[in-house]
Amino acid sequence: MKHVASACRSVQWVMVLSTGRAGSTTLLAMLNAVPLIALSGEQHRSSQDAPANLPEDGLLGRLWQAYDLTARIDENPGYAFLSSPQYGGLQELMCSWLLYMLPPQPSEVVFRGFKELVHAVDVPRATALLPNVKVVRNYREDHEAQASSGFYEVQYGSQASGGVSSVAQWWFGPGAVADEQQLAIAEIEAREASLLNPLSYASDASTFDFPLERFSVAQFDKLLRFLGIEGCGYNRVAHANEGGSYTRADSNDGGNSTEPPLMWGECRLAHR
Hints:
Blueprint: H1 2-9, E1 12-18, H2 24-32, E2 37-40, H3 58-71, H4 87-101, E3 111-117, H5 123-129, E4 134-138, H6 143-147, H7 150-156, H8 166-172, H9 180-196, E5 206-209, H10 217-227, E6 229-230, E7 239-240, E8 247-248, E9 270-271
Parallel strand pairs: 1-3, 1-4, 2-3, 4-5
Antiparallel strand pairs: 6-9, 7-8
Helix pairs in contact: 1-4, 3-4, 7-9
């Protein structure tokens, strides 16, 4: 048990939580350009065929299914697990199992974790599971632009069902004509409210807000300071958005480009 417990606490946990279509993939790539950091992609899907919107499916959801079965708290819904007498030992086991299931990394990697969509994970449980987790909260201040993205058009627009979307029909009633962009914006606002709600996080979690509109070298360097990394910095952003635009800058394309990669220059990686 001591070995299992120390495994979970031997890393600094990081979660990138996003409302979706807000630059979280760029954020993940920028962080993973730092040798100390190795974050995985979204964990709510356990296979290509798994539903994309069910917290119960995938690695984290199945962890909680196992916990609920063991702790026998089904008759006491909500977050009774936080005070359950079994939780202390199970937390260490589950956290270490999660670390084991993530892709193996070199020993010099200090920061582990993953990116997740805020609506697809049980945030209070996830942050309570990971000791002293640092959460990077990613969203988009321009909700209209976010709602116009291809993802939300498929979710809420006419592409969803060849006409008024099934979500809109459910929300406004049969035959109703819905403003589907407003429906998408309402969903985005709900996700953002959940993301920024301090009650969504365990007491020992710390947060760093990183909306798409602030994507800049200076802000990414602030993020490294938040994580406790010194002697290292960025000189470019894969998708810069400072000033409100969302334009792609040249970045590392796997070695085929003459342009410098995401992070360039000396990086001594002093970790506080």
